[in-house]
Amino acid sequence: MFGAFQCRFPENAMPVPHRIEQAPSQPLSAGIGPLPGRPGFVSLVGAGPGCPDLITVRGLRALEAAQVILYDALLDPSFAGLFPEGALALSVGKRCGKAGAEQADIHQLMIEHARAGRRVVRLKGGDPLIFGRGGEEALALEAAGIPFDVIPGVSALQGAAAGAGFPLTHREVSRRITVLEGHHLPATAAAWRDLAASGGTLAVYMGTRTLQTLASTLLDHGASPTLPVALVEQAQCPGQTSTFSTLAHAAAGALRPATEGPGILFVGEALHHRFHPTSEVSHEPAALVPGSPREARARGGRRERRAG
Amino acid sequence: MFGAFQCRFPENAMPVPHRIEQAPSQPLSAGIGPLPGRPGFVSLVGAGPGCPDLITVRGLRALEAAQVILYDALLDPSFAGLFPEGALALSVGKRCGKAGAEQADIHQLMIEHARAGRRVVRLKGGDPLIFGRGGEEALALEAAGIPFDVIPGVSALQGAAAGAGFPLTHREVSRRITVLEGHHLPATAAAWRDLAASGGTLAVYMGTRTLQTLASTLLDHGASPTLPVALVEQAQCPGQTSTFSTLAHAAAGALRPATEGPGILFVGEALHHRFHPTSEVSHEPAALVPGSPREARARGGRRERRAG
What we know:
Methyltransferase, Cobalt-precorrin-4 Transmethylase, Domain 2; six-stranded mixed sheet; elongated; homodimer; Cobalt-precorrin-4 Transmethylase, domain 1
């Protein structure tokens, strides 16, 4: 009855029948013909923040109907368990620091497969329209006359808060959320003063490398040294780690990443209102298979640290 | 093969076997005993932004395992189709403007049902930790010693952007998202100046009533009169309406709500990068049943307007 807290999708219960190949070397004529009478179609699908079971039901259905799946290289490999048998699955897009030219290839792959009459899913981490270039992909499809839809997903913001255990807004404490990207921080003193004074929750995607700079800059613009800070790494993935500290400690370099994985940094009074979700429950009825990946993850559990 | 764009969950294919009753008059001894050997447990589940098929797979599994479901009164009635047979389903919580005392009743219901050994789902619109008092509910459970977890959900932010067709961030245009609540707007001129100058995307939950004030205040603090504005009402629900305008027109009162339902207001340059998802596709294989609610919705479609 009880299993791993995370990744409750029975990934080890399913064989992986699809073919994973690298884009863009894959030819388009790979025996994945269109269904008769169906026009090609692309769904831009948010995969959610980590585990496959945090995809939406609508997203899962789009995957199940897909003939071609173009998935972010950064997605957890267990997503492969959701791909239908016979679908062509191509890993595309960026790993840290390597984007750029590949984006045009992704557009071309989506368009060519759809023009060949296929049902394509472009599976993207988090939500397609938050820091995911989903807007660009939608516009490329529209310009090419390809029918498409966008299926939203749970973003790292929500996944990290639920996994690490704190609210993003809290009555009479925080009524505002500001979402930034670590390598595009505000440029003006006015913006920093406002963030320091907002009383809201600040969430910085890809915030690991920039956390000390960010904390120092907030302090310099009037934020309280005791403001709580959390670094949540690999949110909702088996290796999720949350490290709690204060702005002063983070500025002093005492808050350090625990993993090599992506991290999201949070700052704000709402983090004072922490709670501790039970980590042992599973919503799956199935028992763990000893020695299986799920069982190994259950043994590993997730980690929580305190820095500074 | 094609059906309604929205609410693709086959709500009309399922009878509604559960009992819906009003809290808190429901006694606890209603024949929904604990499963032997299972401790009571509460899952705070994000239902997503509207349609039942935008719940996560993990959230759906929690619902399927639930003996007691405490659901937000504002949720679409079609969620009832997800409730397992024999579960006790209680409508709780606020309708517009009536919160307050009821929150303590919700805490008490969750705690008492869990203490009776039952598996409880607290089903909340959007994400439980964004403007949903999920933090308070988690803290109440923790204080009472009840094991619980939090299952994140797609928030109205993501649902509205995907449904109405614009990115929340866009490369070289918008790298910041600010989420506010319509009845808790910033109080300082500095905050307004920063929002007006941020170049990011502003999303105002429950933004319908406050939209003219908000637009005027942004203009007064230096925002461009031509900045695009969108009001998305009943996002991802069958009656979704999106109205696009500019800040100047919104400030002049030309942007008016189309419905009585909840609305989320967006402001920012990213809205210039609109796209138009195909509204006729369904990821369900089933054909529409003539005269069914789904078929009626497909005929109704969704509406898009241009104000000012």
